[in-house]
């Protein structure tokens, strides 16, 4: 394909409720969308970087800067682009995987639309719907938490993930177990909030029959994860630490995790995510699909990825109304705890022009 224009569009969406994690509170989502036009059609990508560099070193203003100054110029200079060529074209630029993933996704979307092929079939999906879980923020009180969890269970979510931090761990987990019973699929996510000194609290979670404990320690501290894995029966899962298929293989070999949360943005794109999926499958390690509070654009691609065979746990692929009153695409609606995998060409969803216009805060356009 010959690239003609690249548009970086920022939109702002209020969240339906504040989302509190160990790294801060989000009340709105400031999203960077990439829209490309080629001689064979158009494509969209969503950059998952958050507003602040608190979950990852990347953040939305930084992603836009590196796209503007380094990534988009390299892409526009190429005589011909395909999704597979994007990572090599951008390889000279180190890191910035979320920014790179957004570009690769937009190119892949355009390419697949041009070939009338869906993300799901291209990536290797084996299911037409995926099981959905929900990530529940740190609540103002245990009572409020129980109310929120009850609401999600009633809506049909098949798994609950509680955000935890030192001071909000054993008590909320015990309360949820006591209220909803031992059969509720339940897991926790610390977003790296623990260290060797606070690790005893994580060992105390071992009695609650959790599916997994996600990223308790720092991104670069595989050793501490390996130590915890040895001490508890509950599976240790990595999120922030896993930035590539190589990182996944290393973490598994070191005994740092027995489950991996796959997020395409963190890994530089859907192509690398499939490699992570494959490497984990070969090593007997299940994966599941994480989320970054995506709009319908990012969600469509995530749901396609989650339909691959080694995605063996419900994902953080919740319905649109878990996040937004009004989504950018037709909303994703939960049906019996599942979301349907889009089957149309490319990501199989279209941004609604009037909604985009209403939410847009800035647009930058680059031409060949
Ligand atoms: O750690 O998985 C995480 C949201 C933003 C950043 C990091 C994380 C999350 C979530 C929610 O847990 C995922 C979602 O529902 O999209
Ligand atoms: Mg996480």
From TrEMBL:
InterPro entries xrefs: Enolase-like_C_sf (IPR036849), Enolase-like_N (IPR029017), Enolase_C-like (IPR029065), Mandelate_racemase_C (IPR013342), Mandelate_racemase_N_dom (IPR013341), OSBS/NAAAR (IPR010197)
Cofactor: a divalent metal cation
Keywords for the protein's UniProt record, in alphabetical order: Lyase, Magnesium, Metal-binding
Metal-binding keyword on record: yes
EC number: 4.2.1.113
Top EC class for this record: lyase
SMART domains named in the record: MR_MLE (SM00922)
Mandelate racemase/muconate lactonizing enzyme C-terminal domain residues: 142-235
Cited Pfam families: MR_MLE_C, MR_MLE_N
Name of the protein this chain belongs to: o-succinylbenzoate synthase
Organism, as annotated: Kribbella alba
């Amino acid at each position: 394909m010959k690239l003609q224009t690249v548009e970086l569009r920022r939109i702002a969406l209020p969240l339906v409720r504040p989302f509190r994690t160990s790294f801060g509170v989000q009340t709105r989502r400031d999203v960077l969308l990439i829209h490309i036009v080629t001689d064979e059609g158009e494509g969209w990508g969503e950059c998952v970087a958050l507003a602040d560099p608190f979950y990852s070193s990347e953040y939305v203003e930084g992603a836009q800067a590196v796209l503007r100054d380094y990534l988009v110029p390299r892409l526009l200079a190429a005589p011909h682009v395909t999704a597979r060529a994007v990572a090599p074209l951008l390889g000279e630029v180190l890191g910035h995987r979320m920014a790179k993933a957004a570009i690769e996704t937009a190119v892949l979307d355009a390419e697949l639309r041009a070939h009338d092929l869906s993300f799901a079939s291209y990536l290797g999906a084996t299911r037409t719907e995926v099981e959905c879980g929900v990530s529940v923020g740190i609540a103002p009180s245990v009572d409020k938490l129980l109310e929120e969890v009850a609401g999600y269970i009633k809506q049909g979510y098949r798994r609950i993930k509680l955000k935890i931090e030192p001071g909000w761990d054993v008590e909320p987990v015990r309360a949820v177990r006591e209220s909803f019973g031992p059969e509720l699929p339940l897991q926790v996510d610390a977003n790296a909030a623990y260290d060797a000194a606070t690790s005893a609290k994580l060992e105390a979670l071992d009695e609650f029959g959790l599916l997994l404990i996600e990223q308790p320690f720092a991104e670069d501290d595989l050793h501490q994860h390996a130590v915890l894995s040895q001490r508890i029966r509950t599976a240790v899962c990595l999120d922030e630490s896993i930035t590539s298929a190589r990182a996944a293989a290393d973490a598994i070999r070191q005994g740092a995790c027995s489950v991996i949360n796959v997020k395409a943005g963190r890994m530089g794109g859907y192509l690398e995510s499939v490699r992570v999926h494959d490497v984990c499958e070969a090593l007997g390690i299940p994966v599941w699909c994480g989320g970054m509070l995506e709009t319908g654009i990012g969600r469509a691609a995530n749901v396609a990825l989650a339909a691959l065979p080694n995605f063996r746990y419900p994902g953080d692929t919740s319905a649109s109304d878990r996040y937004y009153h009004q989504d950018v695409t037709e909303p994703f609606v939960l049906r019996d705890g599942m979301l349907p995998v889009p089957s149309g060409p490319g990501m199989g969803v279209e941004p609604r022009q009037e909604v985009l216009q209403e939410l847009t805060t800035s647009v930058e356009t680059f031409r060949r």
